[in-house]
């Protein structure tokens, strides 16, 4: 019987969830179709340059999902499920203060961490946990009732958890067990048809629509599946032409003539979905909820810690100018980008603002070795000579402000929050304790990938290939998040 490795299970899992979600939210299928069309058009226009940040095969197949759980126990269990697909926690995101709306969650993302695994299938799931112990959102009485409600439900059956543990330990499963794992894991994220307690849901919704979606129902579900597109502005335009209502703007960096950095996201607005409710008078009948939406993303170059500091400064400057003189956010941001950000990949690399990998150009080893001649050599001297190619590292992670912006754009209301109370402390260390395993720092992953490419060059050329003195980020590991 054939053995399916973790990446094969991951690819099948992404496809299975996509098929299920397409049936639950048909507009998602439209989003995928338009994304594919836009990508094909972009390829036809830009040629090979369109694949600068990933092959068209990878980009077309790429998805990220989003789910929400209610407690540390549920978060630890979902970590076991995702480990069966070679997906591990990366990064810590605190959305509680990233939006003016009430979004009482902390999050991590489960994804592959090795470059080869990402190339095979980059499926990632942004996973949020309700901060049910934060008194800014929930008083003592509501905290107790929330904990009781969440404790009584089972999101992930023991059979699924046991099979997931086996897959993680073995590095895969045989065909029969793989099929069963996929069946159980997909079912765990299917929208439930259990009646929703109307009064309980609305009580939580007054605090936060996100809290109601997590703690007001008996199960978890896919909140959105996100295709990747090469031109998000064109996708936005085409979706609007089809009559699909999009959120007000694209979240994240603005469109500009320089390199794409980090992550740009947008979505169509949450749609009304019919659900069965148990009403206060004891009757059971249909009603509607608006919590699920269709998101799409355009990924750019991963920034170094220095680049992220500059990015935060540019966001702050954009906010300052908007507060002083108004205008359209994206237009103002574009002006700031032009003033402060290098408009070429080379500029980003030389200033230590972005991560790149470096490899020998085809047929260039002999010439590169002659140039290096066993001495310490700058990688950029080799790039300038045409012997080495610099390739940007794709940003594989998320932005708290953008994620909160997507959430906020699709909420039914802003909810409520008592800022006179002190919030509960959460950070990456607390998240590690919750999931029971290390939470990878994304910057360390990018820095290690970059350094490995420099080490490989040094070995191939029998020389020491180093970064330019004015570009320490190429040779130093980054540790900030």
UniProtKB/TrEMBL annotation:
CDD domains: VOC_YdcJ_like. Pfam families: HGLS (PF07063). Its cofactor is Fe(2+). The keyword Metal-binding does not apply. Keywords: Dioxygenase, Iron, Oxidoreductase. Its EC number is 1.13.11.93. The keyword RNA-binding does not apply. GO terms for molecular function: dioxygenase activity. Belongs to the 2-oxoadipate dioxygenase/decarboxylase family. This is 2-oxoadipate dioxygenase/decarboxylase. It comes from Micrococcoides hystricis.
